[in-house]
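Lab meeting prep.
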Amino acid sequence: MSASAAKTKTLVKWYAPHRQVLWALAPLTAAAIYFFGWRSLVILALVNLFGFLTEYLFLRAYKEPVSSAVFVTNFLFALCLPPTIPYWMAVVGIVFGVLFGKMVFGGFGRNVFNPAMVGRGFLYVSFGVQMTSGWLEPLRGFPAGLARFSADAVSRATPLVRLTEGGSVGWQSLLLGNVAGSLGETSALLLLIGGLYILVKKAANYRIVISAFLGFLVMQTVLWLAGVPGAVDPWHALLAGSFMMGAFFIITDPISASQTNPGRWIYGAFFGVLVVIIRTFSIWPAAVMFATLLANMFAPILDVAVRQIMSRRAARKEAADA
């Protein structure tokens, strides 16, 4: 068998960390169906199909298999979408994300930015109304969405917006997920369980996660105690919105994140602080998305600086020992 034939034999090349991330996202997928109906599964299926086809068609000329990383991108992208997103818009977003967030850089292992956030960012700036309005109140009472195709009660605002405007949202609702929001980001409890799972399995770097939480909580606490308008108390700020999805699953992408251990601590903290600043002082509610892309942009520069500092320290140590 020729080398080219051997390359085409495997359609998808699977990596263990990607499997573990997908397992961690499975409960969030089930929760999306339960709270918002089977339409959620249709969105997920379409996103996976077209995300896979985009990478497959790009790699076909090179007779290389599709990386399993694309399915992680597909799931994260779909779970970050509002339940009312039109099907065609979800398809356009994932195609843009995989193509311009990953494949134009050379494919798996070479992307600078998180492809899921590139796709979501494209939709956010191109179709702002569909991405920021028409949030659905979740279906409640068993069997909830298991017996419905979609929810139809429209909510005017997500919990984070309500809290920022001075409203109240019970922390139990935020923990369980029966609140308006993106498909897979409403349940803080499921996000925590999934996040701890990939940390135990070492599919995510603990340095990034810990520093992201520390940066977020410290900055949020400082602004809240200072009485800054729009600064929510740290407990509700942590449970509401998409921070936990970002800290566990998005910012920990090993390709677009910092590659040095000291850099990972700074990178995670930078992300956490950015989320708070963008949430509090900007008009953009998609803080996690923008914070991720900004952190991705600075990650290579951060690694260069860390390696230079480490190299200089090693050189000084060698000179002192000599």
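Slide two material, second protein:
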Amino acid sequence: MGRYLFRLPDIGEGVAEAEITAWHVKPGDRIAEDGPLLDVMTDKATVDMTSPVEGTVTAIHGDVGSMAPVGAVLVELDVAGESEPAPLKRAEAQKDVRQNARAVEAAPSPAPINSDPTASPSTRRRAREWGIKLEDIKGSGPHGRILVEDLERHRGQPKAQPREGIEEIKLTGMRRRIADRMAQSKRQIPHFAYVEEFDLTELEGLRAELNAHRKDGQPKLTLLPFFMQAMIRLLPEFPSINAHYDEAAGTLKRYAAIHIGVATQTENGLTVPVVRQAESRDLWDCARELARVTEAARDGSAAREELSGSTITLTSLGAMGGIAATPIINHPEVAIIGPNKLTERPVIDGAFLTRRKVMNLSSSFDHRIVDGYDAASFIQRLKRLMERPALIFIDGAH
């Protein structure tokens, strides 16, 4: 028998270390060639490491959540033969890591008892407090309506009881990366927030018309591609907003290219896929690329270059967008734009009361770089384009 030391391979692209996010083996396990050993995270990509040899695991090194430098021994194995097999070459290691990159897929849930539950708001609130899914309850009220008594019956006790205990969860992987980046941003950047109301009635009419007559292969348009097109028009006049600030060097990097990051919620946490060279894309191409990179971020197939390098970020919660927010800037950028929820409400128009589709837009700027006047001017110009969408597509009209 010989001994084989599995080391964290040199993945390249400047990666010096990786975080251990999951173990698939323990000492004593028999592992086949190409069998899974552990998952690690480098930057924003989660990959699994597989064994290049068949053998028996004798030791593993590193806890979940710990960092391992490139070249560190992660697994020791007993293998057939007299000597340790030659280590993977860098190119082979890079190929293996790329081939093993994968998304973590949730296990399918069992079929619900009640696929379309109905209940009063107070009953729904009580279900949330008790941690009960309404889909698991068969209602005894009229037309199958779920009552509080049904929740109590499901819970197995007549009334709510005080709960005790504290669950400690160690932050690892993407969740820890997000926490570190948000803390860094708030520590280093003096945020200046600005909120303005946008009347998007005309734009919504245009969007509906374009979607109703789009050609085969054209994606369905959301609001974000319109925001992107308006930003493309304006940013050349506000170059210090499409920029990175290097605090250590004391330099501001103003970019000619516009790489728009789009904050995207995934099963593994918040990521920012990037629509690169947005200035070279029309409305439909922005929508197409936006759909592609956000889907790649959600299913875990996004490449490293698709998750980094943005020069300004759009963040939107869609229907959950609320009235206003204070978005955190994506360091080292200096600005972030956050559309909130679009609602229809009555608006006074001269002597008349009319219904309009209105949205608040929240934004944050790095006050070291962007003065309040410039931030307000940029948002007011953005408001003008979004409220008169034809101007977005007319050269020189903005």
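Talking points for slide two:
The chain is about 25% helix and 25% strand.
The first helix runs from residue 90 to 100.
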